[in-house]
Amino acid sequence: MGGIWNVIHEEAQTLAALFGSGQLDTKEDKEILVAGPYYAHRGADWNRGLNRITDMEEFKSLNPGEELRKTLESFENSGIKVFTGSKFIGSTKIGYLQFQTSDFGKILSMYQGKEMNLESRVKAEAYEHFGLDSLRYENMPNGPEYTHYLCLSYAISELVRLLISTNSENFRTSDLTSTQDFIPCPGVSLHCHEFGVLYAPARLKKLGIPVNTVATLHATLPGRTAGYNAIRKRRNNDSTWPPGVPENLAALEALASYADTVTAVGESTRQEARLFYGINGIVIRNGITIEPDKINWDLKERSLERIRKFLSENLYKYHGGERIEPEKIIPIFTISRLEVENKGYPDLLDSLVALEHIIKNNILEGHMQEEIRVICFLITAEGPKTNLPSGFPVNLPKEVLVGNELRIQQMIEERELDFPKMVRGKRSVAALLYPQILSSSDGGLGMEVGEFMAGCCAGIFPSRYDPFLLTGLEAGKEGTPSVVSRVCGFSDAIKTIESLKEALGGVIVVDNIGLSYYETVLDYALAVSYFTRNFIEDRVKYKLLCREAFLLAKDMDWKAPTEQYYELISGTRFCKQENSTDR
């Protein structure tokens, strides 16, 4: 879940819907262009291990207007391949332009009177403008990634430059040496997400192209490398970079300073940008798109039954012991990238140990049935897997695991949170590593992410470092309450939601900044216990908690941040239409 593509996709779609709603005071038709990379075949991606291949089959043909057609012709004449597509949201078209940067080393070009390939030209120009030492950067272990992003940024900046030049008869870039006296072009604006494309607004600024630009940071590379130590660095005003920061990519990230406006998805990221780069920005939160007005209770019940049945059958089949009745199983979950410390896996597992003792006391006091079993899914993986054994992940041979997956499984076993004691009736809480990307064909539960989240009693997200945490909103979208850490940007955003300030019980924020480790772990356990007890004892109250989580997510939709982004890049405000019944 989450990721930069989710954000760009939702921003484009929401903006298109707003254009069609009549809330924008403009007489001109607006077109949205989404630009990114194109991977034609296996090996074209800079990350050879992922083997990503771009699929544009869902899109219709672009049918560009005059300015864009001329721009695409210019790209074609220069040898740059651009793959295009389009889709409509109402009457507003979104165009998709995907640049094949892997060919830049094969395209002949001229720079300062010398013939060279286009990749070399891009690097030479970047060195002249910003001192980017590509000769050194490309020989680093992540050199192909740096080169790809530099070339992609170049292509995006050329897209803007050509669009403006075809739209302005008297525009000549050779005459422009400074942007001090130029007014941004009202016809074209550029919003760049994350370090990989931040050379684009910087290059446009150096060339003097009159375009308004916004750069959004979803994290900072020094902050992400420091991880949970980033909190200490911010407190101590320690701007030194921790060991391991990818210098070449950080050089690209620092170019955000050339954008007209810099935004961050959370307060922690905004502070990191100021600390590590001296960049002052503003916070515009992430969001989520929820179309239904109500929770799909039928989906939640069906998904819960499916998860329970899967666990009950496979636990007995592969671990023996006592057969656990499906209705006695309470599934909870976490889902994240595989960053053991940053995502707080030690905190989570220790909180499950504490939860075991809380449940044991509840049973002794007669507040909970002895047969209740809480099973926490840990959805995290080094990458997608194939040819998985039957019963996966309850049947989880060690040879299936790689890298940090092995480490997390060892952490589970060290705390005796694996299944042997649970099936013998000696434990009420277990952790189940699910090292696979969830899908209907994942070789395990065979459920899409939304179905799975809907079927769980609660989510728990104990991140020690997390710029936003979109998965918390995804859980709320499915009407599933969650426990989140104070460090994530999601918890910051909750404070700004005024309409629901009296009813936020569906999301519990645990202070993992001000409290000691043991207090934090206990608070996670108590929060999960709160949800599970209501799930067991008071379904009416539990459904209210689900509804509160859903309403919070719905109130944090993409409309408000998209309006903010648009106002920044265009200088045009959305009209706030009054309800006719109030006049």
From TrEMBL:
<dbReference type="Pfam" id="PF05693">
    <property type="entry name" value="Glycogen_syn"/>
</dbReference>
<keyword id="KW-0328">Glycosyltransferase</keyword>
<keyword id="KW-0808">Transferase</keyword>
<dbReference type="GO" id="GO:0004373">
    <property type="term" value="F:alpha-1,4-glucan glucosyltransferase (UDP-glucose donor) activity"/>
</dbReference>
<protein>
    <submittedName>
        <fullName>Glycogen synthase</fullName>
    </submittedName>
</protein>
<dbReference type="InterPro" id="IPR008631">
    <property type="entry name" value="Glycogen_synth"/>
</dbReference>
<dbReference type="GO" id="GO:0005978">
    <property type="term" value="P:glycogen biosynthetic process"/>
</dbReference>
<dbReference type="GO" id="GO:0005737">
    <property type="term" value="C:cytoplasm"/>
</dbReference>
